Amino acid sequence: MRVLVTGAAGFVGSHIVDALREAGHDVVALDALLPQAHGAGVPSWGGGHGLVVGDVGDERVLSQLLDGVDAVCHQAAMVGHGIDPADAPGYTRHNDHATAVLLAAMYTAGVSRLVLASSMVVYGEGRYECAVDGIVEPAARQPGDVTAGRFDPPCPRCGAPLIPGRVPEDAPLRPRSTYAATKVAQEHLAGAWARQTGGTVWALRYHNVYGPRMPRDTPYAGVASLFRSALERGAPPRVLEDGRQRRDFVHVRDVARANLLALAAPPPEPLTEVNVCSGEPHTVGELAEALAAAMGGPAPEVVGGARPADVRHVVASPEKALRVLGFRADVSFVDGVTEFATAPLREPAALTRL
Description:
This protein has helices at about 10-20, 60-65, 90-110, 145, 180-195, 225-230, 250-265, 285-295, 320-325, 335-340, and strands at about 1-5, 25-30, 50-55, 70-75, 115-120, 125-130, 135, 165, 200-205, 210, 240, 245, 250, 270-275, 280-285, 300-305, 315. It has about 350 residues and is of the alpha/beta class.
């Protein structure tokens, strides 16, 4: 199979390229090398991929690369919280406009199979249940509650404490950040394309991906990278809120394997959304503690507060991924974090807005 991988030099994309090549597939690797994610030049792990440096939003580049391609694995995106709301044009340009250009080019080239990197951020807060009112949507946390250390959202109907659960794929989409809004738009664009063209889309909703090649020392990086960077400086990892916010940390090799499964299997619906997760929830505090122990560094420091648009709990149900894709994560939390403590990371990136 000949596969175009966008974002091929990136954190997740480079692992997908490696996995595809190891499985004997022909890979066309494309990456714009955005300064938010990359240091100077092509990272060492991208050098052997025959990387084409170009923008997914450039239809001239795509028209050349899509010739003879059987499927597209679309990983290219601006990710993370970013610096502030002034990042919004960059997010929409690189995530949504570029995806629309890609879909149009795929239609013109007759390529009908897409695997899309989506994200758990489309859910906003995860799934909550009230003992009195059942499944409810929690109200947005107020700054005064966060300042006072009241981090868990109450039931919006009766005010009782809520029980966090695992979010399924049919949960309502409630994006809380610019990045999240662009990922929802990507899914909608891809779904519309599939219905109009007869194409198929797997929307893989990654949960908190970590592992080798994560970008470091940038506000676009994930929390695992931020903790490790602090420990390498000899500083304690700074854990926001009370450290008890729950996430699903999934290793990047498992994410790459989920992509290979999706490329090999027809989805049951034109657009099929799947959580890509470990199925093993942990708190952010547990991640910081495990990483500090693995690196022999100082204990984490719980500092309170919260970033704007942060959610309290979001962990995933892995059931649909197993049922329709045959995917189950292999890398355990302990093994993954222990490896991550010494794994190679991407060099510090520039903070230039695009």
